[in-house]
Amino acid sequence: MPIYIYGCEKCGCETTVSHSMTETMEYCDVCETIGTLVRRPSMFFSPKNESEQKEKPGSYVKEFIEDAKKDLNKQKEELSIKND
After folding, report:
1. Tens digits of per-residue pLDDT, 34-70?
2. Does the N terminus or the C terminus of the chain have fewer Cβ atoms within 10 A?
3. Which of 4, 2, 24 is nearest to 14 (CA)?
4. Is the pTM of this model over 0.90?
5. Distance CA 18, CA 16 (A)
6. How many CB atoms neighbour CB 64 within 10 A?
7. What is the C-alpha separation between 79 and 73, in angstroms, rounded?
């Protein structure tokens, strides 16, 4: 579920909530008012540079493809031995 940040226009507090995209939060738990919360934009986390990333994008796919190729070649060898 997405995480949203709400700010109260009355007391100024901020609340972080996880809910579906269609839901909204209207009640401020701090000042106990209804209709004063405004959803604020939030950013997704993204590493600033490549050195902060442990693995490059697509590395899992490449690894899977390489493993599948090895398995396929092994099966081909086994079949060719049986047919000889």
Report:
1. 988 998 877 665 555 555 556 677 787 888 888 889 8
2. C
3. 4
4. no
5. 7
6. 10
7. 10
Query: 7: burial class by Cβ within 10 Å (0-12, 13-18, 19+)?
Result: middle
- Pairing status of strand 3-8 against strand 14-18: antiparallel
Residue that the structure tokens 């081909």 belong to: 76
- Cα–Cα distance for residue pair 48/23, rounded to 1 Å: 31
CA distance 5 to 16: 4
What DSSP state is assigned to residue 45? P
β partners of residue 3 = 18
The first and second tokens of residue 3, run together, are 């995480």
**Three-state secondary-structure class, residue 6:** strand
